[in-house]
Sequence to fold (1603 residues):
Amino acid sequence: MNTIAFIDTEVSPESKKIVDIGGIKDDDAIFHSASIIDFTGFLDGVQFICGHNIINHDIRYIRTAVVGARIEPTNIIDTLFLSPLLFPTKPYHGLLKDDKLQTEESNNPVNDSIKARDLFYDEINAFQKLDEDLKRIFYLLLHDKIEFRAFFRFIKYECISGQLENAIQVKFNSVICEQADLSTIIAQHPIELAYSLALINCNNRYSITPRWVLRSFPKLERIIFLLRNKPCLTGCNYCNQHLDIKKGLKKYFGFDAYRMYAGEPLQENAVQAAVDNKSLLAVFPTGGGKSITFQIPALMSGENEKGLTVVISPLQSLMKDQVDNLEKNGITESVTINGLLDPIERAKAIERINDGMASLLYISPESLRSKTIENLLLGRKIVRFVIDEAHCFSSWGQDFRVDYLYIGDFIKLLREKKNIEDQIPVSCFTATAKQKVIEDICAYFKEKLGINFEIFPSRASRTNLQYQVFEKGDDESKYNAVRDLIQDKDCSTIIYVSRTRRAKELATRLSSDGFNARAFHGKMESQEKTTNQDAFISGEVQIMVATSAFGMGVDKKDVGQVIHYEISDSLENYVQEAGRAGRDENITAGCYVLFNEEDLGKHFILLNQTKLNLHEIKQIWNAIKFITKFNSSVQKSPLEIARAAGWNDNLSEIETRVKTAIAALEEAGYVKRKQNMPRVFANSILSKNAQEAIDKIKNSQKFSEEQKITATRIIKNLFSSKSRKVNSSEEAESRLDYLSDNLGLEIKNVITVVNLLRDEKILADAKDLTAFIKKGQNKNRSLAITKNYGLIEQFLYTQIEEEEKQFHIKELNQMAEESGCKEVSTQKIKTILNYWAIKNWIRRRNEDFSNNHIVAVSNLSREELKEKIDKRYTLSEFIVNYLYSKIDLNSEDDMLSDETLVEFSTLELLDSFKKELTLFEITATMDDIEDTLFYLSRIEAIRIEGGFMVVYNKLTLDRIEHNNRVQYKEQDYQKLSQYYDHKIQQIHIVGEYARKMIDDNSGALTFVDDYFHLNFPSFINKYFKGSREQEISRNITPQKYRQLFDSLSEMQRRIIDDKNSKYMVIAAGPGSGKTKILVHKLASLLLMEDVKHEQLLMVTFSRSAATEFKKRLIALIGNAANFIEIKTFHSYCFDILGKVGTIEKSSTILETAVAKIKNNEVEPSRITKSVLVIDEAQDMDLAEFELIRALMEKNESMRVIAVGDDDQNIYGWRGADSKYLLSFVTQHNATKYELITNYRSKSNLVSFSNQFLKLIKNRLKEIPIEAHQNENGRIKVVRYKNRNLVIPIINDILSSELTGTTAVLAKTNEEAFQLTGLLNKHGTKAKLIQSDDTFSLYNLAEIRYFLDALQLTDNTYLIDSDVWNDARRSTIERFKASTKLEIFVHLIKDFEATNPKRKFRSDLNVFIRESKLEDFIASTSEVIVVSTIHKAKGKEFENVFLLLENFDISADARKRELYVAMTRAKNNLNIHLNGSYLDHIHTEGLERIEDYNVYPAPGESVLHLGHRDIKLGYFAFIQHWLHDLTSGDLLTLADDGCKNDRGEYVLKFSQKFMLQLGQLKQDGYVISEARVNFIVYWTDEKEKEVKIVLPEVGFYRGKKEDN
Fold:
């Protein structure tokens, strides 16, 4: 009898030396020692040695002992290779798990020796039970192979060599192909053949080849394919039965024949190609039975060769539908793994794949990045990849997806890792594909994998569909048309809309009108979507109002009509959506479009806002450069990358956009996105065996009952997977994501339990966390950040209550700053509230109507919340200090860096905290440590990677391009650019189809046919010749293009067309259409230049200018204008600092903002801009220019468009200087455009001002201003030899026959007062453009009355329209006699014009506080406007009178002031002066008058009293006397104040004004009358608010008093 020893070794993976040896002989003698000498003695006298994986592992370490014991090399038996041969049937041998022995012990080779012995004897027994034919076949194939020869020698089995090929044919008759080349297979791959035959012989549908066999014998997949899945040419019993596609159809789906599609056997041909193992590309129209085409070959391959077909689809819901539909047919061999599954469902799906229970796996392209998915597919024979929606590969497709471009790389990687030479066939399906798309798909797979497709196109059209387009001008006519169509045709109806909101509104309205309608859109909860879809499919609901998300994979044959409420964005999508009607070919279905040209415009706007432009990819690339500063391989979530790029958190689909940008960078070779593989392991088991570990878990107080169950499952899994043999897969099996996926546990729960296992010393601790600590100048900057956030939290917890409360984030920020949080920002507040919400301390939500408004409610009492905050802060301080203490401050690398890397573990932190427990009054758990680390990561006090952070870090990136100077380039963007360009063309083309359909039905159908079957250049040449080709390249409708640009001059068009200049200066002369060109340029940037609204900023110098731009933009492009940020310099600074601004607080706001921007203390998304537009750039002062420079430094590639006219720089007194505008040209090489056509003024007026302009030196503009108008106006220059010009200019005005608007412009306020008073005295209505320098418009009585009528509270954020209208009406009624009512009316009109849909309290507040009195003085022909020159800038009038008494133009500043004044005139200019500086000017229509008369000074004058002129404290006592007063009311004068008509003192003069009054009396002036000028609110020193009266006091010249 043969003697045998069973052995196992434990080898150190580091030293590769034996640590322990175990063994047992057939006489039950046991060996357990690490001594090779002793082991040699143990083996003495043994003939055979046996072990599990002994040939490839143990023998190399014990060879000396084997040789020393004189054991023959041919007598080494390996149970590993025998097990698939002898236990091929599921369930497999209980001692086996893939290539490992099942064990519940650690580090015990004796036990594994015993298991190897038991397995070996079971294998002998299994062999003995085989029939003689199979024994003979196995022997003849394997008896001389090193892996098997000892086994046959030990059991002394042998047989006579003979006709092996014939024996196999006889034994496996009708279960393998008779034409298979067995002789070659026997000669070249006998082991693979033996394993294949063993698997076939077991005759079990779900038995599969173990993954280690596939890995070790890659040719096995080819062998089983040749035997079972390659149809033979002549046909045989097996192939005729098992590879017949009609029998497959009948078997799985019960049909006798495949569907014909318009006479074409499209289904049958495609299925046959797949069964013939060809790669194919099939264009299946909607309803063409695509799914069966790949399901039948997949199910046949699953049964025949135990193969798995992988179906890649972009739609998760569609995957589930396919699996569910198969199950309804009794087919359970399909699973899906996607984000909609909970962990248990995911684990079950993985288990079914691993166990061979599934033949079809549905996954998304994104899933291919998962290491779990790769591991799954490596363990199965993959027979085919099926790619649904294959047009996503092509940038010419209607739905190009960059993540599809990874599919080829993944298939290639899989082949390399499986070490298989044969191609894995690929099937591509699409419903609608143009010739170019087909070419792109073919080229992609040819380049990536060397695959050539057999193409199955379909030219057939659906004959049972009737198409019709109705042109409808507005929504109401559309709705009526829908109603009529539904009533006319009582059938199942799908109504497609383009927006989520529209789906809800339309379904609601139809329901209220008695129709049975439901909505369906992508933003619905899954349950509601499923409920509504099922109700529609079952017929319970007749009408489905849906976005394009509905219908894919929905098999409802009786849909009688599809109505497109808005046309689709491409012909492909339209044909696909319309094709959901009439799937039952026996019914005639209607496909209707309700067409409006504006719907195309909405598609263009949506495309522009959702597309990923070149600039945004550059921002992501710059962000990646920043986050890979210290480590070229990082794990970051898409949100973290977006924030680093300066993107707004609230961007829609931000994760998809980031991933797309990274895919584009990967395609260009800048980065490599690796599979999502967290480097966190549950390894280094300390317990000796599973039972010891389980006992420790049961006795531990640290685990909850649920955690004990989880911990036990993890330990059992780790022990069953454990092997002391070197194995590449062991690492994977102890990785936490693998444990999570395979055990059906949330990864966060796995991490928590693994940390507890480490804490209990069941697993060894691992320093799997790394943190970057911030430092600088020997200071712990991380601690400073922690303390700063601690202060903010201490403030915030006092604001959050247990009842729901609304907050305006900027108001909250301002309150925090006032409470002592100096480093607070809106982003920091959001970060804290988000963290609190994640921890479930509070519930919070953003209001739908605004990003600035949040609603929050505490789930805890205020005391509980404070306790949690304090505890977490204590831990935060400890952790930051502890990690900082680990830094080597003397290290050269650390000294140079702002951040230093520290390695640690959560257990290490917990232990250290416990050691210092005497310092703290709190106890902490592992959860507390993790929560605190997460918090520190969120507030960016430290940057953490690895460990439990794998829950949040989902992308693994390797930076390939390490040169920081390298930028993402135009050529890199070419593929995406091509896709977006084609999307634009597709919108135009679908619009053209609709227009053709209205006039020429058959021509339109031909148009569609040509679109899909002609090559694209031929199609374009046929339908869009000449200029029309350019027309369809613009992302705007031709109608809108004409509206935008037809009225522009050639120079204005050049400015619009300039999309490349980084810096642009537009030197715009007076009346040159500066506002118009800016409005059109903003429209062009938004609609045609890929600029996102959140990355476009325009700054102006006044609220009125911002309002004017917004009003014009709304008129030009509609609602899209509301998303563009147009702000004053001060308003923008308040905004980025998170404050509610007022003019009173604005003195240093610019300097503060600039400092914070430079110190990186401003939320990046607030200052990340791609285009900056500056209005009136010549008026910038140093602080404003520093803001511009700071923004330019933070946005290297930002385009700057500066518009201004240095000739109109008249604010030098406040520091404004046109040198800052000029610097763009001199320092930044800006492209300069000169707008020199004056559209405002008559020809001779332009000539006159041009001649005067020559007096100014060093101008930016070089070309003279040209007049657009040919006709002349009237110019009159009256030159006086004396002073006192007020009376003669008044006489001139009164004697002139004026038509149109008129302005009288003066040098000083005093002159303006005199002119206004005299004109009104002479019966000519005049109004003065006044300033409100002493008060805010917010405090004007008319405004306050309105605000009170709105009844605004702290919780009012959106103002109700009815409340607004009532408040406006009551204010007008109350102040109908007020001279200041006009201000209120114009202010409200402006606000309504710029906020047409929603009115926010905060916006109104800012609007009022930023407004000035002069913003609301409207010019009319009935009233003459009187103003100083400065206040008239930016305005224009038909007639202008200039009063230039003693006007000194020696300085250029005064020349520019006069130039501004004279260029306000459109038709007539009248200048009254007593200087000679205009004598040199000559032009047509100029009348000169010399006046030598001596005129007296005006006898009347007016003073507007301010706060300093009245006794403010007096008003507190007389508030009840002011209720009936209104601006314009006449007051009675007294010596020390003014009285109302009841004789009550309503104001008293201040001591200051009494002295001024005395001086006026001495100068001969007498007070003539007084009126209420303004009634405003004023706050006294005690913060008490009172109403005060600011009067207008008139004087006339009487007798001069004696001294």
Notes: The chain has a mean pLDDT of 88. The chain is about 45% helix and 15% strand. The first helix runs from residue 36 to 43. The longest strand covers residues 1565-1579.
